């Protein structure tokens, strides 16, 4: 997933086969979730089984980013998750309550967790990969609805090359065909691609302050790099410089990596051993 809508050109609410789009991410960030915190509530019609799948989808996103999904208390802006027999979401934070629809249908959507992740990425501000300005170099789209419309370069922010593996890409069964000579897999719903993760951490910045209180150093802080891939030696030097006040980072090693490390940010304070 490498593209998000940048202006308010497409602000009409649409509801089609899988997704509904509205007043989406602006380039000043007003349509993004502040600090990456997304309050949510479940509708009463969501089964316990479906809730577990939604929570797993949330976990997979938070595992690689600064995004944090929290149960709504009294926040004005939040997503309400309901089972409507389909998958749909607004793009970005629209203000107030916004609906996000999910369901469990193993025939139409065999990977429920991946389909939920797709909708959560919409809610975070992401558009379909096959709507990128450069999509005609890689795929042919035979449908004309807004779910398939190709945007101009002035309408979207693109991160990195065209991402066939994006969880935001439709499959051939959904009307997106690879052009002759292109050999790739599209439409996967198993995981966030490397491009998805990179774009997510660009839109929701990977650098935050981690505020803590320690004896003798009230309101002290240190920089915490979240989701940003850094060399092991660079991380070790950074940690050594920060440990003069007995402050620690929480480290996380991606399963597929053996040398690099991610630093994971905690919103309510730093992690201690």
From TrEMBL:
GO biological processes: proteolysis
Cofactor(s) the protein needs: Zn(2+)
Entry keyword Hydrolase: yes
EC number: 3.4.24.-
GO molecular function: metalloendopeptidase activity; zinc ion binding
Keywords: Hydrolase, Metal-binding, Metalloprotease, Protease, Zinc
Cofactor note: Binds 1 zinc ion per subunit.
Coiled-coil segments: none
InterPro entries xref list: MetalloPept_cat_dom_sf (IPR024079), Peptidase_M12A (IPR001506), Peptidase_Metallo (IPR006026)
Peptidase M12A domain location: 24-211
Annotated active site: 119
Residues annotated for Zn(2+) binding in this entry: 118, 122, 128
Name used for this protein in its record: Metalloendopeptidase
Lineage: Eukaryota, Fungi, Fungi incertae sedis, Mucoromycota, Glomeromycotina
């Amino acid at each position: 997933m490498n593209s998000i809508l940048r202006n308010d050109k497409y602000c009409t609410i649409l509801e089609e086969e899988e997704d509904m789009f509205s007043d989406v991410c602006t380039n000043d960030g007003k349509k993004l979730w502040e600090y990456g915190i997304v309050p949510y509530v479940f509708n009463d019609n969501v089964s316990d089984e479906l809730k577990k799948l939604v929570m797993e989808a949330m976990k997979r996103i938070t595992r690689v980013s600064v995004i944090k999904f929290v149960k709504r208390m009294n926040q004005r802006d939040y997503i309400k998750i309901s089972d409507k027999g389909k998958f749909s979401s607004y793009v970005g934070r629209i203000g107030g309550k916004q609906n996000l629809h999910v369901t469990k249908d193993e025939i139409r959507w065999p990977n429920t967790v991946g389909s939920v992740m797709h909708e959560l990425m919409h809610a975070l501000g992401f558009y379909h990969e096959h709507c990128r300005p450069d999509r005609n170099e890689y795929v042919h789209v035979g449908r004309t609805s807004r779910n398939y419309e190709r945007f101009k370069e002035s309408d979207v922010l693109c991160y990195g090359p065209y991402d066939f593996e994006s969880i935001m890409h439709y499959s051939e069964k959904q009307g997106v065909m690879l052009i002759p000579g292109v050999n790739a897999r599209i439409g996967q719903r198993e995981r966030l691609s490397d491009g998805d993760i990179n774009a997510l951490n660009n839109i929701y910045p990977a650098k935050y302050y981690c505020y803590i209180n320690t004896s003798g150093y009230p309101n002290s802080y240190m920089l915490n790099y979240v989701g940003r891939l850094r060399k092991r030696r660079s991380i070790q030097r950074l940690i050594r410089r920060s440990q003069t006040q007995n402050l620690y980072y929480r480290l996380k090693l991606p399963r597929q990596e053996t040398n690099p490390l991610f630093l994971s940010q905690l919103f309510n304070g730093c992690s201690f051993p």
